[in-house]
Amino acid sequence: MVIENARIEEAAYQIMHNAAIDIPQDYLTGIKGMIDLEQGDLSAFVLQSMVENWEAATEDRRPMCADTGLPRYYVKVGNEARIDEGFVGAERSLRSATARATHDVPLRPNRVHPLWRTEHNNNVGINSPEIEWSFEPGADWIDITTVHKGGLFGTDYRMLFPGDGIDGIKRFFLDTLIAFGKRGLACQPAIVGVGVGGSKDTCMQLGKQAACLRTVGDRNPDPEIAALERELKDIGNKIGMGAMGFVGSSMVVDCHVEVGFTHTGGMPVSIHTFCLSSRRATARVHADGSIEYRTDPQWFTPYMRRETVGWDSQAAISSNSA
């Protein structure tokens, strides 16, 4: 069966609404848990105010933040999926959904030409919105995830060397969060994503995906990386900064680390903070045209983290269950 462009556009249009208005439950639970532990009065007040703001946004069906960020898409295509008019048709549907949602939600039209500052009042333009693609064997559906992330600050990169090791990553992480907090370059607390390895561009992609496409409480399947995630979260919350830079202990809702094989002579690292309004939503469009909505992107599958040349699904299942 062929997945029609109209269904792709319908799904993308709906998740644009969902992401802008409704906070994901995993993130809301994480913030509420931080309120219970926060000792800083102003920081606790900000967190409680944000919860009330999110509840009001859902009730009134209005965007949870006045700055609706830069809407973008992450699309996972099943290897058996057939798309009406192919990927060009799917991309056109996503761009159309973005333009319509900008007007209807409404989203703030943040996208402008970098030199001339001209815009189309719809968040669509040259290379906008960004669309990243991935693939999944043995599936005939399409997963569409939208993320509305601020596009100004909250990201840093450093080329470390192998000798810097895990301690070097921790130092960079600590330096970055302190700088972000002191200079107002992050909207905290936030999910912090760390990309390690790859080339510079893939390192940046991995860190942003780690921040935006994994849920609070999720852990990397590598136990040593999972332990690093927990340690970095703990370090971040002991800096002495809380919500929006006030004194406190609530800077990191969770920390996620993703890795990629890299050049033998280096260890690139990127750090990304998602927004305090953690805006993401996913739709799965099935081959029969039905659509399911959720807030967990399920982006990092065993297939995406594979190390081998080929792909043996049964071997992967056995390895993960061992």
Structure overview:
By secondary structure, the protein is of the alpha/beta class. The chain has two domains: 2-19 and 63-150 and 280-321; 151-273, no CATH class. It contains eight helices and eleven strands. The protein has helices at residues 5-21, 25-37, 41-60, 86-104, 165-183, 200-212, 223-236, 313-321; strands at 2-3, 70-78, 82-83, 131-136, 142-149, 155-160, 190-197, 252-260, 267-273, 280-285, 291-294. The strands form three sheets. The chain has a five-stranded mixed beta sheet with strand order 4-2-5-10-11, with helices on one face. A four-stranded mixed beta sheet has the order 6-9-7-8. A hairpin with a 5-residue loop joins strand 10 (280-285) and strand 11 (291-294). Helix 2 (25-37) packs antiparallel against helix 3. The radius of gyration is 20 Å and the shape is globular. Belongs to the class-I fumarase family.
